[in-house]
Amino acid sequence: MHRQLLDLTPSQKRALSLSLFCAGLIYLGLALAAGKQALTDAARALGVGGWFLILLCSFGNYVLRFLRWQYFLRCLGQRLPWLRHFTYYLAGFALTTTPAKAGETIRSLYLKSHGVRIRHSLASFFCERFLDLLVVTLLASLALLQFADHRYFIAATAAVLLGMLAILRSRGLLRLLSRLAGGRQGKLARLAEHLACLLEAAQALLRPRPLSAGLLLGLLAWAVQGLAFAFILTQLGQPLPLPQAFSIYAISLLAGALSFIPGGIGATEAVMYLLLFRSGVAQEAALVIPIISRVSTLWFAVALGLLASMYLGLRDSNEAEPERQA
Q: What is the pLDDT confidence band of residue 3, given thresholds at 50, 70 and 90?
């Protein structure tokens, strides 16, 4: 039986409740700073069709990332019914407001009942996060390409990320972890053993073919989300060049991730506002846009995750009822 939403640990419930509370305060502050009229004008400018398109782009982002996740697990020899698996994937979003989205590893518990090894699902999760970092960093660098003085920064960033990739793919690192584990006792040996198993599975996903496919799907997924952000800017009468819009969105996501605040709440919105304002976007619009962007991405994902979790819980309860009656 799968864990239901109500079966979350106390710490997970506190993290979710705290993130909702903090988000409410932050968005209330942004709304008050922008003013009621600015919010009303923004809602009118987007309209029902605009909101539908933005949410559709967000859902498209989730589908593309799920396809990458499904592909990674298949590369590791794991096959599941795609609809059921997609529900598990969405359910993970219920805990996306955790540092580095670590709460999304709850998918491993769902998949374990289908015989999927924990190390395989965790390796897929790790590679997902790593490839997202690569793609979002690439998108964040787009605007810098216009400035010759900043191209060295792009080169340095690319060198660091490629260096990380080379280390992760290194057989030497795997051998080192295996030697540390090698039949020894103690917490360090057990940790080294777990890391070696995880790295071995991850290296299978970092070979050229799965790596290329994962990068392509990730690039498409985040490009779709970047287009939605550019659409919001245009609809609110604050258009920016597409590379600049992509960069602002991506840099904001990176700032949120590096802050290690659950869900990047506060950090992402603050950086997005500052970058928009410094790019010439009117202050009222710069205050409203982060609210719209985050509600249609982060909180839309959390809402879908909660619905998927409740659906799985109800389904498990219905399946267990005949067994209890028997």
A: very low
* Six-digit token string for 32: 């008050």
pTM equals 0.86
Write down the H helix ranges in the chain: 10-34, 36-75, 82-91, 107-112, 118-140, 151-168, 171-181, 187-205, 208-235, 242-259, 267-278, 283-294, 300-325
Cα(67)–Cα(131) distance, integer angstroms: 14
3-class DSSP state for residue 6?
helix
Q: Which residue has the tokens 């917490």?
A: 187
Q: Which of 155, 203, 157 is nearest to 178 (CA)?
A: 203
As a whole number of angstroms, the distance between CA 156 and CA 153 comes to 5
Cβ atoms of 256 and 271 within 8 Å: the answer is: yes
Cβ atoms of residues 320 and 15 within 8 Å:
no
Confidence of residue 6 (pLDDT cuts 50, 70, 90): very low
Per-residue buried b or exposed e for 199-217, using 16+ beta carbons within 10 Å of the residue's own CB: bebbbbbbeeebbebbeeb
d(CA 137, CA 130): 11
What distances in angstroms separate CA 116 from CA 64, 68, 91, 104, 120, one per listed residue?
21, 17, 17, 16, 7
Domain segments of the chain: what residues? 8-113+210-320
Distance of alpha carbon 143 from alpha carbon 240, whole angstroms:
11
> CA 57, CA 256: separation in Å to the nearest integer?
21
């540390």: which residue's tokens?
180
